[in-house]
Amino acid sequence: MLEEQTFHVKLHDRADFCCGVPALDDYLRRFAAQQSAKGMACVYVLVDDLHPRQILGFYTLSAAQVDAQRLSETDGNKLPRYPVPCFRMGRLACRSDRQGQGLGKLLVGCAVERCLQAHRLVGAFALLVDAKDEKAKAFYRHYGWIPCVDSPMTLYLPLR
Question: Which residue ranges form the domains of the chain, and what is each CATH number?
Answer without folding.
Answer: 2-158 (3.40.630.30)
